[in-house]
Structure formats: C-alpha cells, structure tokens
Amino acid sequence: MAASVPDSNSNPNSNPQNPTTLNDGDERNPVAHTDVSVSGHDYASARDRVALLARIQYLESALREANAELARLGRSATTPTIPSPVPELPPPDLSATLPSHLLLLLADSALPLGSFAFSSGLESYLYHLHPTVTTAHHHQSRLASGGTASPTALLRRFLSLSLTSLATTTLPFLVAAYQFASTTTPSAIFPPYLDDAFDSTTTCPVLRRSSTTQGKALLALFRKSLLPSLSPHSPPALQLPYSHYPIAYPLVCSFCSLTLHQTAHLFVLAHLKSLLSAAVRLNLIGPYVAQAMLAAHETQEAMQRAMQTGLEMGLKGGWEEAGQMVPTLDLYQGRHELLYSRVFNS
C-alpha cells in the first residue's frame, strides 16, 4: 500500500482546532506576530473613538435634560452674565458741594453770634402778662386755677407775633441787602444806606443793641473763619465797622453762594431757634418740647407764611415798605431793661 502524501490543507498548523496551533504572540511564528500587532493597534484606536462618541452623546443628552429642567423652572430667559467690574468713581466736585457745606455751618446753633444772650422780648412778654408768671411752675399753678393759658399756648402765641413782626420789619431789608451783595464785587459789599435805614426804623433801643451786637459778631466770624477758606490766596478787604444783623447776614450768605430763599429760610430758622432756646432757659418748656415745636407742621407753615410775606414785600415794594405790624412787641422789648430781675441781656 502506497504511502499517502499529506495535503497542504491538512497542515496541522493551519487547523484552528489543533491544540498545537501557535498563538499570535508565539516566538515560533514571527510573521503572524507582526501582522496581529498592527491589527491590534487599529482596533484600539477604533475603540477609543467609539468611547469618545458615546461620551459626547451622553453629555449632549445631559445638556438637553438640563435645558428642559431650566425651562420648566421658568428661568430659561435668564442667562448668567459675568459681573462687570465696578467703574472708578470720579473725584468729587468740591465747588458744587461747598454751598451746601456752608449752609450747614451757618445753620448751626453753636455759631458764636451772642444770640443766646437775648430773648427777642420773650422774657418781658411773659413778665408783663403777670409779674410772677416767669417760670413753668408758676404757669402750671396759674393754669390750675384758670388764670392763664398753658406755657406751650403762650409760646405759640408769641412765636406767631414774632414771626409776623420779623416778616414786615426785617425781611425786606434782608432782601435788599442780598440783592445789593449779588450785584457788586466782594470788596464793595457794604451798603451804608441800608444799614442807616434799618437803624432809623428800629425804634426800640433794646432791639437795636441786640441787632448790632449780633451783626458785628457775624462779620467777625466771617472774616476770621469763613473768608480765609473761601479766598485763601487773595481774601477781599471787607471793611464793615458798623452793621446790623439783618444787613450783615445776607451779605455773608451771598458771598457763600447761597440763594435768596436759602438765606431767608436760614434767617427765620435761626430766629425761631433763638426764641425756643430762650424759652427752655426760662424754664417755660423743656428741650424735647422745644424740638417738637420746631418740627411741628404748624411752625413750618408759620415760617413759610412769614417768608412769603417778607420776600414779596422786599421784591415788589423794596425796603421802603417795611413797617412794624405788631407794635406791642416793641413795647415788650423796650421795657425789658426795666425789669427788676432778668435772665437775658437788654
């Protein structure tokens, strides 16, 4: 029997089921090892691309779900914005804030004007109602017996009379002095005719002394304290040897760049503060009641009426139209120096 020649197809090395088949990484089959390595690299790259595509699909799905949730909450229209940096603020304009600063300074009750030494006739007014009615204790005892009104009612009555007198006798001169100061140079703001006219129309010697004392104090304060800061390089030479308070006050306010309305408001407010301070020191009312009266709507309305009357009289008729509408106040102030004992100067 002839021996059979083995067929190439029956090679045991090519039979995948033969346990003697060489592995791809076997050193006995280097050609097969080389071919399989290249194929494995391509397979790894394809696997990475598939993984990246799957991750992208997952992220896109998560983004769609997040947008849907945001729309459901009703905030889809609002988009987060990066906060812009805070812009740098420009430097403050000191020239614009200076008038307001000076207004607050002139409204201070602590200005050394000497107004605390005068009561504008309040002490004499209370004394002449009854010689013993000068304190709140006496007022309360008289009130219990029905002899007089309450201290607050008496003070409100006097405030009304004093504001009426101030509007008709003083504010027209204040308007004229302000107009004179606003139309002249600072070195010539001394209206002697206004000062002389106010002096001649002030018939009460006590009021005249009070006005000149406060006027000189205000001008001294202006020259020593305010003027150096307003004109540090070349301060105007202000020669004001004699001036009444209602004439000096608008000159100072005009030089401080305050308006006419602000000047009149400050002047009337300072007058009210002086009266209420005198009432506190006379033990007529307490400090809290004084502040309540100063802030009351009734007091504000009385101030507005006085300012309107005085400004209209000064702007339309001039200072020649000024006159005393409450002559009894001159009597009270004139008799203040005749009191047996008094707290305030006369």
Features:
single chain, 346 residues, mainly alpha, 13 helices, disordered N terminus
3D structure, described in words:
- By secondary structure, the chain is mainly alpha-helical.
- It has 13 helices and no strands.
- Helix 10 runs antiparallel to helix 11.
- The N terminus is likely disordered.
- Mean pLDDT equals 74
Integer-rounded radius of gyration: 48 Å
Number of helices: 13
CA-based shape: elongated
Class from helix and strand fractions? mainly alpha
The beta-strand count equals 0
- Strand fraction equals under 5%
Largest sheet: none
- What sequence of helices (H) and strands (E) makes up the elements? HHHHHHHHHHHHH
> What percent of the residues sit in helical stretches (DSSP H or I)?
55-70%
Ranges where pLDDT stays below 50 over 5 or more residues in a row are 1-38, 132-146
The separation of the N and C termini measures 166 Å
